Amino acid sequence: MSRLQALHIGIVGACGRGSTFATALGQRSEQVCVQAVCDTNTGALASSGELFGASATYTDYEDMLEAGSLDAVMIATPMHLHAPQSIMALEAGLHVLCEVTPAVSIEECRQLVVAARRARGHYMLAENCNYRRQSLLVEELVRQGLFGTPYFAESEYLHEVRDLNERTRWRRRWQTGIDGITYGTHALGPVLSWMPGERVTRVCCAGSGHHYQDPRGDDYHQDTHVMLAQTGGGGLIKIRLDMVSSRPSVTTTYQLQGTEGCFESARRADEQDRIWLSSIHEGPETWGFLKDLESQYLPTRWREMFNAVGEAGHGGTDSLMSLAFLDAVLNDEPPPIDIDRAMDMSLPCLISQTSMEQQGSWLDVPDSRNWSAGSA
Ligand SMILES: NC(=O)c1ccc[n+]([C@@H]2O[C@H](COP(=O)([O-])OP(=O)(O)OC[C@H]3O[C@@H](n4cnc5c(N)ncnc54)[C@H](O)[C@@H]3O)[C@@H](O)[C@H]2O)c1
Question: CA–CA separation, 160 vs 246, rounded Å?
Answer without folding.
Answer: 7
